[in-house]
């Protein structure tokens, strides 16, 4: 990655920059001096952030790195995470503030205040204790975006049990693997969930998953779809209990116990490049400190004033850190929405923003590009003037989507924070600070105060400005993973062996510095192509394709090529207005030339296939592996993690008929 082709230099022709407005900067939670202060004494800086929380016992040491790569932050300190997210706000007189404006997909709503949340979490904590859950036990949660999901997570935290949230769309096999790996004692789920206007069963899948699962003693079932679902909810007598029967009967008082700062908080499974999913382990004090701090500065969140909305699902790390822990620790008022963005219509998000006067909106590039595809006339029908900060997470955001987001949703003035981080990092690591950073479309820019990231070459040497390489984190951070559940060796191997000599954490992402030293993420290193010895990121080519007005979405893979090593194969969805001549050679030729023009002739795709859909995981990531299978004429591999497995048939059918 050290040698960037000169032809790729014009990726850096993206030179637009948007300084913060004076008014925003004047009122921002932090100013430019924050970086220097953090640099001066990182440990003292993080200690100061940890003081944002309420501790029962102070720590004796900010960072104990003697057992590296297993960190201990705020060693000796004790706190209760749920108390910090709920009770202390009530004690401070904010019991009547709405914590959650919940919006159900069918249109039902619930507003939950901090006082109510405290009662709900206390009851749920008592309920878990009543079925035998003790500190250190694992509770698996497979729930859609209902308030009970958040209550259940906080109830676990309150009693020191670990939650392992499993995305609602995961198959029974996937759920079972996670339940077994962590020997979950209790599973919390629902009878069914609303998806695109229909009630779909959930409990039936959970039962299928749990057949013969020895560790599971209780299954607690939230009633959500009720009679909307056909047939009775399958029930295992003695094991299953309704949430409302168990939880509602509990007292609303529960005294939170303080746990060690390093007490495990949760496990969250994430897929690696190969093999079975890894249970990423996070602990209490450091995780909550960084989740809360980053939510405070990256979104410039003002408690009691802002209305915040993170559109993630609690099945992913973004839902953990930026719906549950960070925001609630900061006394947020937030929207939680149960459904899909186009149910019952494509303006649903904008309607919600208008209704609740959402001021901070945090979403993913894939959704932004979908909104672009649906058209700017849809958001134009709503009053979005309450928005003042827009965020992006999950994948590199191409400059076109970034600009569209800013112009169309952010009235051409809202700062955009492109936040880079991972399940493993626990919280945001690289991001602009609104009010401080002059933002650049497509760049996450700079490690946050107190965080250190570098772009290095194969040998671990930092590359100069303008150079590209691997992203590493060269200093421990409070919310870093504390291991892979039950597999210390995998933890060391995956993250710490690549640059063992230097002790760097290997993120698995390619990145480059621009000439200002700002960081641009280029996608996973496994997605980097090598064409005739030139390294080209799939992201770069995608970005070029998407910058063509006819292109709605594009995914690029490197397919093995006898002459050039790899050849670039692009899968492209055309915009509605252009689909009539979608199969036309003209469109394909024009796009190839366009890429050549944007990046250089070496980046010209060998092949461009016009397709109706792209295969995506449930978290919205394009599954390039499957596209590589098509590009290399292989039998298509495992499609079980696709959000919609019929997409591959659709693509293949289109290609076979020459469309
Ligand atoms: C990618 C999601 C570019 C990256 C929080 C990382 C990004 C992986 C960005 C982690 C971003 C996330 N720009 N790439 N702003 N944010 N990524 O664990 O490849 O689901 O390694 O965590 O997503 O995905 P995960």
TrEMBL record:
GO terms for cellular component: cytosol. The lineage of its organism: Bacteria, Bacillati, Actinomycetota, Actinomycetes, Pseudonocardiales. The modification N6-acetyllysine is found at residue 621. Keywords: Acetylation, ATP-binding, Ligase, Magnesium, Metal-binding, Nucleotide-binding. ATP binds at residues 394-396, 418-423, 509, 524, 535. Residues 34-85 form the Acetyl-coenzyme A synthetase N-terminal domain. Acetylated. Deacetylation by the SIR2-homolog deacetylase activates the enzyme. It comes from Amycolatopsis panacis. Catalyzes the conversion of acetate into acetyl-CoA (AcCoA), an essential intermediate at the junction of anabolic and catabolic pathways. AcsA undergoes a two-step reaction. In the first half reaction, AcsA combines acetate with ATP to form acetyl-adenylate (AcAMP) intermediate. In the second half reaction, it can then transfer the acetyl group from AcAMP to the sulfhydryl group of CoA, forming the product AcCoA. GO terms for molecular function: acetate-CoA ligase activity; AMP binding; ATP binding; metal ion binding. GO terms for biological process: acetyl-CoA biosynthetic process from acetate. Its EC number is 6.2.1.1. Residues 540-621 form the AMP-binding enzyme C-terminal domain. CoA binds at residues 195-198, 318, 342, 532. It catalyses: acetate + ATP + CoA = acetyl-CoA + AMP + diphosphate. This is Acetyl-coenzyme A synthetase. Residues 92-484 form the AMP-dependent synthetase/ligase domain. Transmembrane segments: none annotated.
